[in-house]
Design goal:
Blueprint (H helix, E strand, L loop, with lengths): L6 H15 L2 H8 L16 E4 L14 E4 L1 H7 L4 H13 L11
Antiparallel strand pairs: 1-2
The structure holds zinc ion.
């Protein structure tokens, strides 16, 4: 499925995102201090707003579709759908060392 996003839709969603950024809801999200994708730490300065379904793919700037993301994640994700992006994340997650592992050779 493909969405055609008109200039006015894009503008409207950007406006909505801006308004959402000022909301208490968003401030609380940032205060939680973790990136939605990598669970890495974010601060009020480094937190970015990410659309789970990108606006360019028909996503809306609403509470259910925006999450706190750190800058590296936001930059890496760009216009990918979360499902596509998950694959990427999964790969990066599996390299996390498991301290309980004992399979030394
Ligand atoms: Zn992140």
């Amino acid at each position: 499925m493909y969405f055609e996003i008109s200039e006015s839709d894009l503008k409207r969603e950007k406006e909505a995102a801006r308004a959402l950024r000022k909301s208490r809801w968003w401030q609380n999200k940032i205060a939680s201090g973790v990136c939605y994708y990598c669970n890495g730490p974010v601060t009020a300065k480094t937190a970015t707003m990410d659309h789970i379904l990108p606006v360019s793919r028909g996503g809306r700037s609403v509470a259910g579709n925006v999450v706190v993301a750190c800058k590296p994640c936001n930059t890496a994700k760009k216009d990918q759908l979360t499902s596509e992006w998950e694959e990427f994340l999964e790969k990066s997650r599996t390299v996390t060392p498991n301290t309980t592992s004992s399979d030394k050779t």
